[in-house]
């Protein structure tokens, strides 16, 4: 999508996508090597009753789906950050996740008119409606200056 296509209140969806057990293990072993992400046997005895994906991996899933739904082919080029990351329910192998984003604000930067600013809330949901991720993101877009 192009920056001009975004508007406040807009809802953007994508997915579903599911992680395999191998996806979870590979990511966790490299980036988040906590036992409940890397050791299926120990995780089965842990507080989650089994292996779960890293929250950071779920952020990556959301990014992939945001790109597929809205950012691929756009003028997007950076983000100054995200706020309020929450992982209310764990993600397990084979569970389909769907992406939903709601646009909060679309504006041209007052200080840097070559930048478009998009503030949006991202969420991932399990097939049964449980939320797996919520975050508030800001995306920057390179725009022509009039």
TrEMBL record:
**Superkingdom to which the source organism belongs:** Bacteria
Which InterPro entries does the entry mention?
HotDog_dom_sf, MaoC-like_dom
Cleavable signal peptide: none
Q: Where is the MaoC-like domain?
A: 13-111
Q: Where, if anywhere, are coiled coils annotated?
A: none
Q: Which Pfam families match?
A: MaoC_dehydratas
Output this protein's name.
Answer: Acyl dehydratase
Q: Per the UniProt entry, what species is this protein from, by scientific name?
A: Vitreoscilla filiformis
């Amino acid at each position: 999508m192009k920056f001009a296509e975004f508007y406040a209140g807009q809802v953007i969806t994508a997915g579903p996508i599911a992680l395999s057990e191998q996806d979870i293990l590979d990511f966790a072993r490299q980036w988040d090597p906590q036992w409940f992400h890397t050791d299926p046997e120990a995780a089965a005895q842990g507080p989650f009753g089994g292996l779960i994906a890293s929250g950071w991996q779920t952020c990556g899933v959301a990014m992939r789906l945001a790109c597929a739904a809205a950012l691929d082919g756009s003028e997007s080029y950076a983000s100054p950050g995200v706020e309020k990351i929450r992982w209310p329910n764990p993600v397990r192998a084979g569970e389909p996740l769907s992406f939903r984003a709601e646009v909060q604000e679309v504006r041209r930067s007052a200080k840097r008119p070559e930048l478009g600013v998009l503030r949006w809330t991202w969420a991932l949901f399990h097939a049964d409606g449980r939320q797996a991720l919520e975050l508030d993101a800001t995306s920057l877009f390179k725009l022509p200056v009039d």
